[in-house]
Prior knowledge:
This protein is mostly helical and 89 residues long. The protein has helices at residues 9-12, 15-27, 36-49, 55-68; strands spanning 3-6, 30-33.
Amino acid sequence: MTFVVVYDACVLYGNTQRDMLIRIAQSGLVQAKWTNAILDEMQHNLAANRPDIPVEKLTRLRVLMNAALPDALVEDYEPLIETLKLPDP
C-alpha cells in the first residue's frame, strides 16, 4: 500500500527537493497530490523571489510537473475544505 502525500508549495519551491519528491512519487513509493492553489502559491513565490526566472519558464515548470505525475493534480475538492481541521490554512 502506498501512502497518499500532499506536496505543499513549501516543499515544491526548491528545485532539488521538488525533483527528488517527484522522482519518489514516480517510483511508486508514494502517491503525490497537489492542487492548482498549491501550484499557484509555488509559482507566485518563485516569481517574487527569483525575478531572474522568466514567467514562461515557471509556467512550463508547472506543465512539466503535471505531465510527470498526471494523477497528482486534485480538482473539485473545494466543498471539502470546511470539513478539514488543519494547522495551516
